[in-house]
Design goal:
single chain; mainly alpha; 4 helices; flat
């Protein structure tokens, strides 16, 4: 073995084991740290506000990337349809008492309705 890399072993099962272990480690370390420090944080703390802002910015960046520079089948749809679906979802989110579920369902419904109508 030449180390802990994706191509360390030449067997069919090694990439799966590597992905499971690496995925577990990347997620659960942060979860355990969150549990350990959660009693000391309040929602009003500057650290919590910063973490929330960074997480929100990351989600917004992923959504912007999917809408403005899509790949696969999504790239075959028009920019107007994608932006319209986002606008409908955001409007529903704001009108629905800031419910993420309502915003997602309405945005998806608007997108699929536009696809059905050939937009």
């Amino acid at each position: 073995m030449t180390g802990w890399s994706f191509h360390a072993l030449d067997t069919w099962w090694w990439p799966w084991v590597f992905l499971i272990v690496a995925g577990w480690f990347a997620n659960d370390v942060w979860r355990l740290l969150g549990v350990a420090f959660s009693g000391r944080l309040t929602e009003e703390s500057p650290l919590f506000a910063w973490v929330k802002a960074v997480a929100t910015a990351l989600v917004a960046g992923v959504i912007a990337g999917l809408v403005l520079n899509p790949g696969g089948d999504l790239a075959e749809t028009s920019l107007a349809l994608r932006l319209g679906a986002v606008a409908c979802g955001f409007a529903a989110f704001r009108l629905g008492a800031d419910s993420v579920g309502i915003g997602v369902v309405v945005g998806e419904a608007a997108f699929f309705a536009g696809r059905f109508l050939g937009l």
